[in-house]
TrEMBL record:
InterPro entries per UniProt: Nmi/IFP35_dom, Nucleotide-bd_a/b_plait_sf
Domain NID: 77-165, 177-262
Protein name: N-myc-interactor-like
Record organism: Sinocyclocheilus grahami
Domain of life of the native organism: Eukaryota
This protein's GO CC annotations: cytoplasm
Length: 285
């Protein structure tokens, strides 16, 4: 009995350690995940590159790079200098006293920290011989439905061609069909619809069959070396005049400043997102 109790205790300890390891692993995976909204882009194919492409599929590669960004809040400004050493000089200051006509205000410079960004490649293989179809209701027993669909897809009069194989899933009303020659699948995808004979005419949706892989996934983070965040800016005058006074102040060598490449002040009650290119220049949105 004592041996049995010892074995049970060992099992509990082992299971407890495994659970802890699983929880730690799950937490690490959650922390490493990065959520990014990727906008819909219209892609124009300008030319065909010479390559050893497979006869039954089209291969494409896209590189996706997330632009680094920073949310600029009210009472803040971003200023980018032409020289990195000027930004370094400003960041050494605890505060900067900026003259605004008859008034003065203390502005605090901060080093800019950007959220992590991602870069990855999307590799896509689109089949030249196969297509997917859906909206094929099970109006007949599954075997008979499959036979009717294959017969319909094999008819040139309906826009089909000689079928190599066809898969049909009764539960989802979807499947895929592979033709013996290229060209048929492409024509069907361009049309987007196919009229099949399943006892009565049924209009199917036709979609391209493709596979994709994400490769060379990289994360990176950093700070623009020529850009400084200014905080604590008081709305002593209108937006344009205040931004001009800030620019004039930070252009003067006597204020440890230098040539300003870009500046953007955000007034009270507003905010904007600044996007940074690889050379450190920011774009507003």
């Amino acid at each position: 009995a004592s041996d049995t109790a010892a074995e049970i205790q060992k099992y509990k300890v082992k299971n407890s350690s495994a659970s802890r390891r699983a929880i730690i692993t799950l937490k690490m995976l959650c922390e490493m995940q990065i959520e990014a909204r990727i906008p819909v882009k219209t892609v124009k194919f300008a030319r065909v590159l010479e390559s050893e492409e497979a006869e039954d599929q089209v291969e494409s590669k896209f590189t996706v790079t997330q632009t680094s960004s920073f949310l600029l809040k009210s009472g803040q400004a971003l200023i980018t200098f032409e020289e990195e050493k000027v930004a370094e000089q400003i960041l050494r200051l605890a505060k900067c006293s900026v003259a605004c006509d008859r008034a003065k205000m203390d502005v605090k410079p901060y080093a800019l920290s950007l959220d992590p960004s991602v870069k990855f490649e999307v590799h896509i293989q689109v089949s030249k011989k196969s297509v997917r179809f859906c909206n094929a209701p099970p109006t007949l027993p599954e075997e008979r439905m499959r036979d009717r669909l294959e017969l319909s897809f094999s008819r040139a009069s309906r826009g089909g061609g000689e079928v190599e194989k066809l898969e049909y899933h009764k539960d989802t009303g979807s499947g895929r069909v592979t033709f013996l020659s290229t060209g048929v699948a492409e024509n069907l995808v361009h049309r987007g619809k196919f009229c099949a004979d399943a006892g009565s005419d049924v209009v199917l949706d036709v979609l391209p069959l493709y596979e994709y892989q994400l490769r060379k996934f990289q994360t990176y983070s950093g700070a623009p070396s020529r850009t400084v965040l200014l905080g604590g800016i008081q709305a002593l005058m209108d937006e344009e005049d205040l931004q001009d006074h800030l620019e004039i102040h930070f252009q003067k060598p006597s204020n440890y400043g230098g040539e300003v490449e870009n500046i953007k002040y955000v007034p009270d009650g507003a905010q904007l997102t600044a996007f940074f290119s690889e050379d450190g220049k920011e774009k507003e949105e």
